[in-house]
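#struct-help
A.M.: can someone run this one for me? Single chain, 241 residues.
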Amino acid sequence: MKTKIFLSISAVALSGFFIVSSCKKDEEKNVTTAQAMVVAKSDVSSDNAYNDIFTETEYVMSTLESNKYPTSGTKSASLVGGVTISVTKGAGDSTIFPKEITITYSDYASNSGIKKNGTIKITQSARIRKAGAVRTITLENFIINDSVQIQGKKTVTNLGLVDGKPSIKIQLENGKIITPTYFITRNFTRTLTWLEGFAGLSIFNIWDDVYQFTETASGSTKDGFSYSTTTKTPLNGSFRN
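D.P.: on it. Structure tokens below:
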């Protein structure tokens, strides 16, 4: 094991501990605060990339649910590229499960301005609001802005009531962001526990939500650093104005 530096970075690590260690050829190496900050910032950048992709995916799933999962359709952003959405299993009915959905991006620029190419494959065992429902989201040959490859699988599990409160577990496995000169891996497990707003029409209609958030995450970088973050105290969040 290498020397570890513990940093309390509220803005970077969700008010948890951010731990960085160096593991190069089993030789001890001190990790400086500056090096730890570089890793922390890379971690935040990678998290932002995943958030952009998965937020758009949840919007697609919500729209499909509202329209009873039509077999296929195309969505465009202004005049830039397009997205083809296909329901390959369980189409045409909001009550038939499991469902399989494929989202294919072709030079598509989302509202965030990020250009996307590649495929997202989604499987869903039941309506996500049902206790025990599982949704998996897998990225295949997914590239943003022509040069950054995004890898990983996200799993959303409805835990039902935990201590009397609706809870969702969100996991990212085998996450990796590769640029021409750098890479960072990322895995996390998050738990969202709803305090208010869960009874709305959509579990991802965040605007009426008040929830509690915890996370553990880990990863490594091309430079030989490994890192981990842990939420020390559950955070309360709300999207209300």
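A.M.: thanks! The chain has one helix and 13 strands.
D.P.: also worth noting: Residues 1-16 have pLDDT under 50 and may be disordered.
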